[in-house]
Design brief:
The structure is a single chain. The protein has 96 residues and is mostly helical. It has one domain. Helices cover 75% and strands 8% of the residues. The protein has 3 helices and 2 strands, in the order αααββ. A two-stranded antiparallel sheet has the order 1-2. Helix 2 packs antiparallel against helix 3 (60-77). The relative contact order is 0.11.
Amino acid sequence: MFYGLDWIATVPPTVRLTTDVFGKEAAPVVFGWIVAGHQLGAAFAAFGAGLLRADLGTYTLASTISGGLCLVAALVVLRIHRRGTVRTVGALVERA
């Protein structure tokens, strides 16, 4: 139950950030790609962790890699800029 509440609590802020950065027109498509990328990333991470477990007999390396990637993601998130205006031209989205 707590996992479900935690997971669903991240959706509204992600939708808001996506809308702020890409505009109302492009946000649904971009959010769809975010969700798809998340699912593909989770599948590859689970597969890679399983391969490491089969080869090494432990999840330690997989957990260490996962933690390192979380730190990288945290640093990348700090680079999100919220100022400026958003211009949409057809299917192309650019930030002024």
